[in-house]
Amino acid sequence: MAAVESRARADGGAGAEVPSLAGVPLLGSLFDLKSDSLGTYLRAQAQHGDVVRITAGPPGLRAELYCVFSAEGAQQVLAAQSADFRKDNSFYQEIRDSFGNGLLTSQDEDYLRQRRLVQPLFTKRRVDGYAGAVADETQATLTRWAQAPGGVVDVSDEMMQLALRAVARILFGTDVDATVDVVDRCFPVITEYVLRRGYSPANVPRNWPTPGNRRAAAAMDELYAVCDRIIAERRAESGAGAGDGAG
Fold it and tell me: Which residues contact 230 (CB under 8 A, 6 or more apart)?
């Protein structure tokens, strides 16, 4: 799913009317998004199709999400016509404040620059080379499921673990367990924080020492520390390899 703001609509231009998900008077779908965001998105798609407008918050402070649920629509929004869509709303700003201005939130030339940087990771040859790591982690997951007491597993948690382990092996190579453990503990804390703030019409500043701010800050510090460690290790390995080759 892609959720963005149309440049034409932001500039006051005319366009095809997008169906809106019905919410409560004045507040729209604010409470639905906070309590069950996935269920709200699924209900919006079931009721209105692949392009739906969702509002959250009172007039004057209202957030508007234009949700695109089809793969074809996402391709248009994120690639073919990306210049016509913006990521300027409060939801995207909360993501930037938590994770930095990466591919998910960057726009225009900054987005194109970052996209070019990661493109070598997704050539056909490189993607084919990832198959072994994905297959190994999938088999390990299936083996663990077979040993689960009563044969019952938390599929949501398990699939997140599988995705994290596969990505960690592909991108980082070593120390998968430690990396996945930190991401698995910290990422949900940050995600819940971002969603709560992104859907709220007003928020306290992040530097106020509230329990929520402190939990999120601690999780971000731990997550960034892991990223810094991995980058430092990779740079050290690259430097050692270059030195060996020169010798």
Answer: 172, 175, 179
